[in-house]
Amino acid sequence: MFKKAIYITSVLVLSLAGRGWSKASNPSPPDGAIHKDTWVNLNWRPGPYVVSFDIYVGENYDNVKYGTGGTFRGNQNSAFFVVGFPGFPYPDGLVPGTTYYWRIDEINDQHPDSPWTGDVWSFRIPSGTAYDPEPADGAEFVDPNVTLSWQPGYHARLHRVYFGDNFTEVSNASEGRPQGATTYDPGLLESGKTYYWRVDEFDIITTHKGDVWSFTVGAAAAPPDVVGRTIYVDEVNGNDNNNGSTLQTAFATIRKGIEATTDGQVVLVYPGLYLEEINFMGKEITVQGVIVSPAGAPVLWNPGDFVVSFYNGEGPDSILRNFIIRDSFMGIFIADGSPTLSNLTIVGNNSGIEAYAGSQPDITNTILWNNIDGDLFGCQARYSCVERGDEGVITDDPLFVDPDNDDYHLRSERGRYWPRFDIWVLDKVTSPCVDAGDPHVGILNEPIPHGSRINIGAYGDTTEASLSPSEQPRPLPDKVSNPYPADGAVDVEGPVTLTWTASLNAVSHDVYFGAFVNAYRNAVAIANTSDTTGIYRGRQVATSYMPPELIGSSYYTHCYWRIDEVDSEGNITTGDIWAFTTHPLPPPKGRACFTAETGVWVNDTLVPISKAALGQSIYDMNCLSKIQEVQEHKGTFACYDVLLESGNCLSVAENHYFLAESGQWLSLQNLKAGMKLKTAKGSIGIKSVTKRSTLYTGKVYNLKINGSERYLVGRDSIVVRDY
After folding, report:
1. N or C: which end of the chain has fewer CB within 10 A?
2. pLDDT greater than 90 at residue 171
3. 0.85 exceeded by the pTM?
4. CATH architecture of 593-721
């Protein structure tokens, strides 16, 4: 508490001294942004004493900085300015491939400090060529399993990728297959070799030849000449006696990582629970959380104290992003600073973010929720979700998956990651924070479909970002795409209507579908239009199909399907095989119990069923529910031992229903050696089912689950029916 008193005293002194921020700030588009349109509405946050604004806009940094070269556009009272429209500067529109600079001076003739000269900001209109390659041009020590990606050119619809180990061949190549995705997998690459690649962009009218980029494949450890550019922190595997130059030699604390940096460096923080206060120490650095499945985002936690502090004059180049900050006295404290804060999930603290002494932090893509005394004080957020926020931010529930158990992924009807079982599942609702972040921020890491707009919260622009339910994906030139249900979806509730995105050249579609008690993927893969088994469902123009056998059925749960595209000349392009499982109708309920020592998964832990309690979290195959009732029966029962291939054994009293691999609910009496039971991650075989020779006398237990009809038992996470 003594340190808090020092902080608060410092805040009061700074505030009483009148140290405020008097010039224009918080530009939109943000400084350095990529703006994907030929007009723009410039706007900014005014200072406290302004009466009017002098506007400067141009294509030359120095001209805008010094107000020369015709860049002065006039004086006005409003805090916005349109560029690229008739009647405004650049009436013919902004030019793709051009960087524009702008400056806002604030004027008040009655104030002795006027004018307040503004910073020079910039934004860029992308050209028709691809840009921002990943790996970056000239990158070294690239992973041999790398997937290439890039930002598409202005209005690009299709992309042609040329790849090889010869610069001249890649530069001169002209034959390539067009694709809709902005990623490319070159396969496993040779360590130590330099590769070249080029992406040509097609905007329906013109093909724009791209630059030739290169990178060199190498070992994961950084060599001496790149040591120090990036600092690594890993709470789980690191040690503060390391040098932090590679992931293998990572520090254990963020504090140590920041101490080792100089301006312009990046601190990469890997998943873990970081129990410390983070002080940026006035440095212009980026502290970036790294999401690694299934561990998720790094968590910052400092009970009874400040978690992150900025009080050494930090500016916009002091950046914090992709962290969960929870259950502390104050999430972020700022005094006389203007750091950049993005993609944070700040929950369950006494206070969220507090800013004093003229601080003007740039807060975007951030969720502030369940902070007891308030979310924001002395500052504002943009493109964010704030429980007690002002106009312009989302105030609806962000729909976290399971905040009570630290799962702050966002729910999505299209799909979201479930770290407990390392799978993607479908929700019945979608968080308002999906596709709601800053539209000017590029997306590099979110899986497709991502709606071309970053998600709000700690998982935004990461590989665990929840999927976009609204994106209309671009069609591929020849092959069908975007299946629904998504490939690999589980527990899809019927009746099921299959939908897909037709290819550019398709005029009709050959539909193949098979629903089996035991999955036969190959049957759908080899079927053709001559099929007589019922897998071929016919040729149609519509891009949807409802399989009649899935209407009200509890029997067919493993489904495979394929769509072949037919063009105007009758040519057929074979589609991929997609799979999903349906949600079977539940079996009858009844008195069916387990012995006291049977393990059940509660609160992410395997505990004896006799220790389970009302209200605890219980996991089924794709969602989290709560225990509504623990049923206890005392008496004498016939007992069976179910021995599994893993060597683990379940003891069942009287009877119980198990979910078979086929998707059927089977009673204990119908289980036999060789059958496979459904588990959270797949299935497991039964070695034997043995009835005990003597009756079992004692207590037996069952659970009733709120909003579900199943739970998981045993070390193998066997799916069983609730009461």
Report:
1. N
2. yes
3. no
4. Beta Complex (2.170)
